[in-house]
Amino acid sequence: MAKIVSIVGATGAQGRGVVSAFKNDPEYHIRAITRNPQSTAAQALSSQGIEVVKADANDLESLKAAFAGSHIIFGVTNFFEPFATSGPEKAVEVEVQQGINLARAAAATETLEHYVWSTLPDAKTVSGGKYVVPHFDGKNRVDEYIRSNSDLLRKTTFFWVTFYHSNYAFPMYKPYWIPTARKYVQFANYAPDTPITTIGDVSVNVAPFARAVVSQPGKTLNGAIVLVSLQTVTAADLLQTWARVKGTNAQFVRTDGKTYRDLWPMWAEEMGVMMEFWDEYRERSWTVAGHKLLTKEDLGVTGLQSLEEGYKTFEL
């Protein structure tokens, strides 16, 4: 009998990758969880023979019903949806409640074997309170909730998905064409040698990680942390990779934090604190005391798409 893999946010960037990890494998039955089964993306999944089920992360009972009978559950929340309309404090509040709802619904699923929770490092703890990144912080509070439930923790993998190549579409990362300079310029509040740990094209490269996590429970259960990463490059090298693929010239321009935040209020504040954290803490940014991170080498993940290939089809 096929195992049911329920995927929250199946029409989103990470969810699409997880769907592709198990699609066309008779050992698994995919259940795509979405708020809007009538959306174009959801209908596209349905046309491929994938079960599409309606549920809302704000509605615990809808999640319990959608998860019923599931053996594997992939949980993810979208901080930036409430952030865009209500700011960081409200977004953290919403994300914490949604994440706890997902965890509670997963814990209530009697058939559950594996809960894969998409989260991020604890910048506040790593930095001794110096850096609090809102879109990390809400997830970290959900991590604490999961760790407080020993039965759920035993079935959980913490899935750390790193920097998307498509983040260049965000205004505070976007390279801007300067006609008088005849080149693109990327403005930043961090050093050009800041290490960027990236997954590249998340919708493509999440798939082999998801598959590896589920197929190696001996390594990945009991609260193991998986670093979902293609490679680490400097901020300047990431920009030059994009420019080289696009056949253009680009320059990295560092500015002070206030100027950066003033250019893109709220958004640059949110991402800027993350970049300052990465700039200062570097290789320690993706760590947690007392825990070993499982890397692609540990899990034997291969066949990842390169940054160059990802940028070939990416448009600003």
Please describe the structure with a list of short key phrases separated by commas or semicolons:
15 helices; 44% helix; 8-stranded parallel β-sheet; 3-stranded mixed β-sheet; 14 strands; Rossmann fold; 316 residues; alpha/beta
What is the averaged pLDDT score? 97
* Count of alpha/pi helices: 15
**Uncertain residue ranges:** none
* CATH class category label: Alpha Beta
Give a concise summary.
The chain has 316 residues and is of the alpha/beta class. It contains 15 helices and 14 strands.
Can you walk me through this structure?
This protein has 316 residues and is α/β, with parallel strands linked by helices. It has a single domain (3-313), classed as NAD(P)-binding Rossmann-like Domain (Rossmann fold), CATH 3.40.50. It has 15 helices and 14 strands. It has an eight-stranded parallel beta sheet, sandwiched between helices. Strands 7-10-12 form a three-stranded mixed beta sheet. Helix 5 packs parallel to helix 7 and helix 12 packs antiparallel against helix 13 (267-281).
